[in-house]
Amino acid sequence: MNNQRVKKYRSAPIREAICDSLKQVNEPVDYNQIERYFVQNNIKANKTTIYRQLDSLLEVGYISELDFGEGKKRYELKKKHHHHLLCTNCKKVECIDLDSEVCEKLHKLENSFLRKNKFKIKSHMLEFFGLCGLCQEQICNKH
Fold first, then answer.
1. Do 89 and 133 belong together in one domain?
2. Residue-wise DSSP of 29-80
3. Residue 28, SS3 per DSSP
4. 27: which of 3, 35, 47, 80 is 20 to 30 A away, CA to CA?
């Protein structure tokens, strides 16, 4: 067996563990959360290997990488197009689907950009930043 095939074979359990960690949550997670899953499940892998496997999963389109401007990247399993709510206090991220009326308005807006600016949009990200219900409650209780 050549060295390249051995590397791929050894990494398969790490890729599977990353996917399992992402399947257990319904929100984008950062490296630390993935690493915590590895520790809790006694899976041995170093940081470089985990990042290498994240890159591999990104390359084949199995996961998505998100950057919410927090100084870290988050990962989630690739799923149908959706958006996120991000609490600026506790940093919790929630996936949301917009109703068809809102999506239709976004599509019309994208088409208007094409007509006016000759700019063809291939994708978009729409994220909402604010306070989750729990953080709102905690802030109100402090005052």
1. yes
2. EEHHHHHHHHHHTT----HHHHHHHHHHHHHTTSEEEEE-SSSSEEEEE--S
3. coil
4. 47
